[in-house]
């Protein structure tokens, strides 16, 4: 079974602070994704990556940065956290081919106060 | 931007019932359609996918795709309490901007 590990699992941050959510995958997948999930909105794509050194903007990138320093690791960075970024964040990985299965982590619950 | 809409929002059925979930999408060029299952406090898990018009069966699951009407449905036969979860429809758009776009989900409760 493919493995995607997120850290931290729970985080409380202050408004204006910097938050980094980390994701590690041991599947040797090229593609990695960051989604956020909110009631009434479902899963929305923030940033994604096709491989080490690449990052692409998803559907809601404003207020977020991403970093892919290696095949295994993909981070989501909130430079100036705001209460509207309170959410559950999911990282996923997938192979680079049409219709690839995405493997999700267990999620990171972020509360910005 | 791909739009994915699911219905109903929630569904309660007795154990053993046939469950039908619906999903409509906006882009006829979408390469594949996926169904994911998500239990509370967990990440989504892929259940079944379909690429071509028609149907596909895997165990108790059957998925039907009609590209002309931009509609896909998931049917769960002989539902069990363990099937209680949120079911997410996702559309894969390939090419230079490959990504999965998700619907908001259908919450299924199977009562024993």
Task: Please tag this protein with its features.
heterodimer; A: 113 residues; mainly beta; 7-stranded mixed sheet; 4-stranded antiparallel sheet; 0% helix; globular; B: 112 residues; 6-stranded mixed sheet; 5-stranded antiparallel sheet
What does this structure look like?
The complex is a heterodimer of chains A (113) and B (112). With 113 residues, chain A is mainly β. In chain A, 0% of the residues lie in helices and 51% in strands. The mean pLDDT of chain A is 94. Chain B is mainly β and 112 residues long. The radius of gyration of chain B is 14 Å and the shape is globular. The interface between A and B is medium-sized, with 26 and 25 residues.
Helix content of chain A: under 10%
Order of helices and strands of chain A: EEEEEEEEEEE
Shape of chain B: globular
Percent strand of chain B: over 45%
Q: What pair of chains forms the biggest interface?
A: A-B, 26 and 25 residues
Helix content percent band of chain B: under 10%
- Give the end-to-end Cα distance of chain B, rounded to a whole number of Å: 40 Å
Tally the beta strands of chain A: 11
Total number of β-strand segments of chain B? 11
**Count of DSSP-assigned helices of chain B:** 0
* Largest sheet report of chain B: 6 strands, mixed
Largest sheet features of chain A: 7 strands, mixed
pLDDT below 50 for ≥5 consecutive residues: which ranges of chain B?
none
Q: Which consecutive residue ranges of chain A, at least 5 long each, have pLDDT under 50?
A: none
Distance between the termini of chain A: 36 Å
| Spatial extent as radius of gyration of chain B | 14 Å
Structural class of chain B: mainly beta
Q: TL;DR?
A:
Chain A is an all-beta fold.
């Amino acid at each position: 079974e493919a493995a995607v590990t997120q850290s931290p699992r729970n985080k409380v941050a202050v408004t204006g602070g910097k938050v980094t959510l980390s994701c590690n995958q041991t599947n040797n997948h090229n593609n990695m994704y960051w989604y956020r999930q909110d009631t009434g909105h479902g899963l929305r794509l923030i940033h994604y990556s096709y491989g080490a050194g690449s990052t692409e903007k998803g559907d809601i990138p404003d207020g977020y940065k991403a970093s892919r320093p290696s095949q295994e690791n993909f981070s989501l960075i909130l430079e100036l956290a705001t209460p509207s970024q309170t959410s559950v964040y999911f990282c996923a990985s997938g192979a680079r081919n049409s219709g690839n299965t995405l493997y999700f982590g267990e999620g990171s619950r972020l509360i910005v106060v | 931007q791909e739009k994915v809409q699911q219905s109903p929002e929630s569904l309660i059925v007795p154990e053993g019932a046939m469950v039908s979930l619906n999903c409509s999408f906006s882009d006829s060029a979408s390469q594949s359609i996926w169904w994911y299952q998500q239990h509370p406090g967990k990440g989504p898990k892929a259940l079944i996918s379909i690429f071509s018009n028609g149907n596909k069966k895997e165990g108790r699951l059957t998925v039907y795709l009609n590209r002309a009407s931009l509609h896909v449905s998931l049917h769960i036969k002989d539902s069990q309490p363990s099937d209680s979860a949120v079911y997410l429809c996702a559309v894969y758009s390939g090419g230079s901007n490959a990504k999965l776009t998700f619907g908001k989900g259908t919450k299924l409760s199977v009562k024993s």
